[in-house]
Amino acid sequence: MKQTFFTVIVISALTFVSACTPKPVAIMTAEVNPDNGQYVICESGKPVLQYNYQTVYEEDVVRSESQKAKKIAYYPISGVYLDEYYKSNPAVGRDGKATSAIWAIPRSNYIHPLYGLDGEMLTNDWPDADHPHHRGIFWAWPEVEYGSQRGDLYALQRVFARPSGNVKCSGGPEYAEIEAENRWIWEEKKAIAREWATIRAYRASEGRRIIDLTVRIQAVTDSITVATRFTNSYGGLNVRMATPQNQNIAHFADTATASTVRCRADFSGIFESSQSTSGMTILQHKENPEYPGKWVEYPSLSWIQPTFPTPNTRYPLSKDKQLVLRYRFIVHQGGKPDDAVLSKQWDDYHSVKN
After folding, report:
1. What is the pTM of this model?
2. What does the DSSP assignment read for 151-176?
3. I need a surface site. Which of 60, 101, 145, 320 has the fewest CB within 10 A?
């Protein structure tokens, strides 16, 4: 009888302790927005970023306050874009009037908006004028070859990333994560590749926030290659920022003979709705194939990117092995961090085992 009584007391005590122990607070959350089907990562209820998994049409774009009332004007185009359009659309006559609206195609599989630590919008989507296909932070290639045919995942011609519906979300006290599967669909008919994007955003600390992006791609058919525009220009991880005041773009890569080859870039300025300077650092991971990717910048477009693959090459996608590309974004208050700080951030990134 005494033993039974003791057991009851112990169980009751354990129940009391369990009830009084605070549960971990999910400071970082990743959830679907029921209104539009897109996935949002928040910290304590405040948005950090939106991952656009479902198709985004022009009227649904999230814009800054100054841009909401503007009607987008599409300019006539010529040169590279027009030539590439005709290559990808051989049935279209060359005697018509083409504008940049040919690139204003509904799209998905990208990050926008990305917010600064004070709530300022750092990225731009469906911008006015001649680059409506630009869309926040997106990973895509201007030249996707499928056998003897060529499509443009970057400028949304012939081949598109489409959601499969397989998405996992998790959150907690330190970070939240979205893992989503897409399929590359050729002319809306045939899947040629599978893609998995993992976006992990950490809780802000000491005036900065870390966001890790991992993209894995695997062919599901033969003869698929990706390349930058004309194999010597832009493509890969593409970053179209909102245009700030006092814009500053800086990028750096150690020489190939250095004992440690660090590769980083930074974009900063005073963004709309903010009175102070802020920005974002981009780090390439050394295990990316053909590391380091060449930095390409277009200051007039508020654009900076690490390109992939190597200039003057095409990278074959395999059915047996995934292409894995990893990057870290560090959203920060203030301007470009000191070089010593940036080097330590690169070292810290590479000290984490995945």
Report:
1. 0.91
2. EBTTTTBSEEEEEEEEEEEE-BSSEE
3. 320
